[in-house]
Design a protein that fits this description.
By secondary structure, the chain is of the alpha/beta class. The chain is built from 13 helices and 22 strands. It folds into two domains: about 5-250, Metallo-beta-lactamase, Chain A (4-Layer Sandwich), CATH 3.60.15.10; about 250-405, Flavodoxin domain (Rossmann fold, 3-Layer(aba) Sandwich). A hairpin with a 4-residue loop joins strand 1 (about 5-10) and strand 2. Helix 5 packs across helix 7 (about 230-250), helix 6 runs antiparallel to helix 7 (about 230-250) and helix 8 packs across helix 13. The longest helix has 27 residues, at about 380-405. The structure holds MU-OXO-diiron (FEO). MU-OXO-diiron binds near residues 82, 87, 223 and 224.
């Protein structure tokens, strides 16, 4: 689909972004069943400005849109609220046709862009409270770090009452209509996007929402998905709700037992460990075979647990691919400090527990000082060990839970 449309937001501000309906995954692992959009905005002020660019491969379409709204060489400012290449991918190309432009962003953003573009450019570092005079319009900058990189800021266009937020309040949802009141229901895309991109940064999301409360917002212009011209408050409120819930999660009483099993031996261990857990605590026990589990479901389970026990057979002195996928779904920013342990059946050497514990440690989880490894098929004494192990793990979880409640 070639999209040449420019969409008005106010008399002087236009959407000049691009549609990417065929995108299957974002950042390699995030499923994007509705595709996405890379939103860029043009401010037709006395000093012309562009906010965000687009992914690099869309340069021909993007340049064509830019030329519809202005002579690119007249662009004086390029505002970057976030420098992940889905937004900053065309900064280098844009600077080539707008050589006098000054790139405006946080200190981190400018540093990141120098590495991304490989050359120097005119820049202006901004922080909360700073303003930029566009002649007849004024931009205000708001620190909003870690949404979703350390470089992120929000930009407020005072006269038009528009808030530009890049990843915040966005979603991977591609629809030609582009306005939130014209694209139909996109709530599931919004929720999924928050979970995948922003949930690890929930504390920062809440801080940013506090900062924008005093603004008399007409429209929120995110970096992905629908332009929020009618229902922006709904999506700010949803973001606050999801972020608050995520922050409360360390106190959530849920233990994940995840495993793979070739001959049901590791399965038997998993269920006996669960028995021990349930004898000693009232935490919800989420026990699951992850052999065929989709990455996003696995990630969801890890995000929602407060402790995890991971089981793998040892195969040729190694753990299984699904166990490596489990580690890929752990997010140290989100999961740091959760209690984690290993178990499994093995035949000859039994490296699985050490490999699991080492990976947990590297991912900043708190490694439990016990594990259960059983040679070949478990028998009654092994089951008793599993139950004792489960009880000990439960006791430690209760201690940690009480500690977190007293903080
Ligand atoms: Fe849409 Fe973090 O980039």
């Amino acid at each position: 689909m070639t999209d040449e449309r420019i969409l008005p937001i106010t008399d002087d501000v236009s959407w000049i972004g691009v549609l990417d309906p065929g995108l299957i995954t974002f950042d390699i692992v995030m499923e994007t069943k509705y595709g996405t959009t890379y939103n860029s905005y043009f401010i037709n002020a006395e000093k012309k400005a562009v906010i965000e660019t687009t992914k690099e491969k869309f340069w021909p379409t993007y340049l064509s849109k830019l030329k519809h709204v202005t002579d690119p060489s007249e662009i004086q400012y390029i505002i970057v609220d976030h420098t992940e290449p889905d937004h900053s991918g065309n900064i280098r190309n844009l600077l080539a046709v707008a050589p006098d432009a000054t790139v405006v962003g946080s200190g981190n953003a400018i540093k990141f862009l120098r590495d991304q573009t490989g050359h120097d450019f005119k820049s202006l570092v901004v922080k909360s409270g700073d303003t930029l005079d566009l002649g007849n319009k004024t931009l205000h900058f708001i620190n909003a770090p870690n949404l979703h990189w350390p470089d992120s800021i929000y930009t407020w266009l005072e006269e038009d009452r528009l808030l530009f937020t890049c990843d915040s309040f966005g979603c991977h949802f591609c629809h030609e209509a582009m306005y939130d009141d014209a694209v139909g229901d996109f709530d599931d895309a919004f929720t999924y996007y928050f979970d995948a991109i922003l949930r690890p940064f929930s504390k920062y999301m809440l801080q940013a929402i506090e900062k924008i409360k005093p603004l008399d917002i007409r429209c929120i212009c995110p970096g992905h998905g629908p332009i929020l011209r009618s229902n922006w408050q709904k999506y700010v409120d949803l973001s606050a709700k999801y972020a608050s819930r995520a922050i409360a999660m360390p106190n959530e009483k849920r233990i994940l037992i995840a495993y793979v099993s070739a001959y049901e031996n590791t399965t038997l261990l998993a269920h006996k460990i669960a028995e021990g857990l349930s004898q000693s605590c009232d935490f919800l026990i989420d026990i699951c075979d992850i052999e065929s589990m989709h990455f996003s479901k696995l990630e969801d389970k890890i995000a929602h647990c407060s402790g995890m026990i991971l089981g793998s057979p040892t195969l040729n002195q190694n753990i299984l691919p699904q166990i490596y996928q489990f580690f890929a779904a752990v997010n140290p920013i989100r999961d740091k400090g959760k209690l984690a342990a290993a178990f499994g059946s093995y035949g000859w050497s039994g490296e699985a527990s050490r490999m699991i514990e080492t990976n947990f440690s590297l991912l900043k989880l708190r490694v439990f000082d016990q594990n259960v490894m059983v040679k070949f098929k478990p028998h009654e004494p092994d089951f008793e060990r599993c139950i004792s192990f489960g009880k000990a793990f439960a006791d430690r979880m209760i201690e940690m839970y009480q500690l977190s409640c007293n903080l």
